[in-house]
Amino acid sequence: MNKEVILRELQFKAIRSSGPGGQHANKVSSKVELTFDLNDSEGLSDTEKERLLRRLDSKLSKEGNILLQCDESRSQHKNKDLVIERFFGLLEVALTVRKKRKATKPSKSATEKRLKGKKIASLKKANRSKPEF
């Protein structure tokens, strides 16, 4: 993953934020929308693209674009920095390769301990019943 190339491929759009805020919110476009075309990216290898397509399937549009928005701050520049940070965090999490799980067997002592506990529980319940004469 080449961050400099990807950073140049990002497209930004400034939008007016929703919600309360009075005159400032009505006049200033402080909300930032980030768009990234995953399929046409030159900053990602083919294997990275495949992994991202699988992992970020729910976050992709029909065209294969990643859309992120940020309107946390009143400043457009701060929102732009926040959405870029969030975007690269999302990519890093999606590109991490999970360790393959090794199948293990419980130890002999653990199995014996479990069976002993079951036997004690069954005896306890058997002793609760009425005696037969």
TrEMBL record:
Stretches the record annotates as Disordered: 101-133
Record-level GO BP terms: rescue of stalled ribosome
Single GO MF descriptor: ribosome binding
Keyword Hydrolase among record annotations: yes
Gene3D superfamilies cross-referenced by the UniProt entry: 3.30.160.20
NCBIfam families in UniProt: PRK09256.1 (NF006718)
Record-stated family: Belongs to the prokaryotic/mitochondrial release factor family.
Protein name: Aminoacyl-tRNA hydrolase
Record organism: Maribacter cobaltidurans
Organism phylogeny: Bacteria, Pseudomonadati, Bacteroidota, Flavobacteriia, Flavobacteriales
